[in-house]
Design brief:
Blueprint (H helix, E strand, L loop, with lengths): L7 E5 L4 H12 L3 E6 L2 H15 L4 E5 L5 H14 L5 E4 L17 H23 L3 E6 L24 H23 L4 E7 L15 H10 L6 H4 L1 H8 L10 E3 L2 E2 L9 H17 L9
Parallel strand pairs: 1-2, 1-4, 2-3, 4-5, 5-6, 6-7
Antiparallel strand pairs: 7-8
Helix pairs in contact: 1-2, 1-8, 3-4, 4-5, 5-9
The structure holds NADP nicotinamide-adenine-dinucleotide phosphate.
The site of NADP nicotinamide-adenine-dinucleotide phosphate has 28 residues, from helix 1.
């Protein structure tokens, strides 16, 4: 089945877990697949694996560290220089950290890696997505967005006080949905759809590299045994990126390839708009202004 032949798909965090399976799924459909990863050796190993599994030779890597906006900009520039179209962008990379860390530009890491980096990357690539329309953006969010019961903490987006890993993660995953919905409002009419996905509880590298300590880390190790495979977790991302069933559908939150239940906060238009503006201001303040939308 080469239903994506001729299309170019970019998957972030494609060297492991859900991202690797998403890249394999899209490559299996014939897409020219670009694996955006922060570690070149891991990216090369992932390409070898995807090639062996799919027989697709149109596989490429680009360097991307979402914790450094200069790297995000470099990734976008490289992609725009090497490929003349972009049909699919899967913002998959992400993480959870039990203690507060900061990115190269001083943003709190969970917010920076899970939201601000992907926001910047998407904005840098928006013009190419529009010129390749119909095209699709998929933000890998999580059921964990429900943990953000009070919504985004706009007065303290960098969580300078009261850092609790799960809560901060929940807000970043809420941001993934709010961003997808606001992007949809801006670009759906131009043929670019934007949706968010919850992959399910997936047995991946998530929270397993010592980043998640204490009770959360212990709990994560226990529940792993009951979780689904990364391949099963990637299905909704692949579905949103490729299926004719969702052609033209935008602004949704999807679970197991079906519309899912998003929180009241995730449905808030005012939070979406405010996050969009705040993200633009943070980027501009850091010296990495987002280009205007086409
Ligand atoms: N696993 C679950 O149960 C679950 C549930 C809901 C949502 N999700 C979401 O699914 C997505 C994928 O997670 P996963 O479960 O597949 O976990 P994973 O196996 O740990 O994969 C995470 C990927 O993100 C990459 N990454 C982390 N920090 C990065 C950075 N600064 N720059 C670029 N890439 C970075 C990792 O690269 P390295 O290999 O170099 O670290 C890795 O490729 C995440 O957004 C997560 O929030 C997961």
């Amino acid at each position: 089945m080469d239903t994506m032949k001729g299309q170019v798909a970019l998957v972030t965090g494609a060297n492991s877990g859900i991202g690797l399976e998403t890249a394999a799924g899209l490559a299996g459909l014939g897409a020219t697949t670009v694996l955006a990863c922060r570690n070149a050796a891991k990216a090369a190993a992932a390409v070898d694996q995807v090639r062996a599994r799919t027989g697709n030779d149109h596989l490429h890597t680009v360097a991307l560290d979402l914790a450094d906006l200069a790297s995000v900009r470099g990734c976008a520039e490289e992609l725009l220089g090497r490929f003349d179209r972009l049909d699919v962008l899967v913002n998959n990379a992400g993480g959870i950290w039990s203690s507060r860390r900061t990115t190269a530009q001083g943003f709190e890491q969970t917010f920076g890696v899970n939201h601000l980096g992907p926001f910047f990357l998407t904005r840098l690539l928006a013009r190419r997505l529009v010129s390749s329309a119909p095209s699709r953006v998929v933000n890998v969010s999580s059921f964990g967005h429900h943990f953000a019961v009070a919504g985004m903490r706009f007065e303290d987006l960098q969580t300078r006080w009261g850092y609790v890993g799960l809560e901060v993660y929940g807000r970043s995953k809420l941001a993934n949905i709010l961003f997808a919905r606001q992007l949809s409002r801006h670009l759906a009419a131009r043929g670019v759809t934007a949706n968010a996905a919850h992959p399910g509880p997936v047995r991946s590298g998530f929270g397993m590299d010592g980043d998640l300590g204490g009770v959360s880390g212990w709990g994560n190790r226990v529940v792993r045994h009951f979780e689904i495979s990364a391949g099963a977790g990637a299905r909704t991302s692949i579905f949103l990126a490729s299926s004719p069933e969702v052609e033209g559908r935008s602004g949704g939150y999807w679970v197991r390839c079906r519309p899912g239940h998003m929180s009241r906060q995730a449905r808030s238009e005012s939070q979406s708009a405010r996050l969009w503006q705040a993200s633009e201001e943070l980027l501009a303040g850091a010296g990495f202004p987002a280009p205007p939308l086409p």
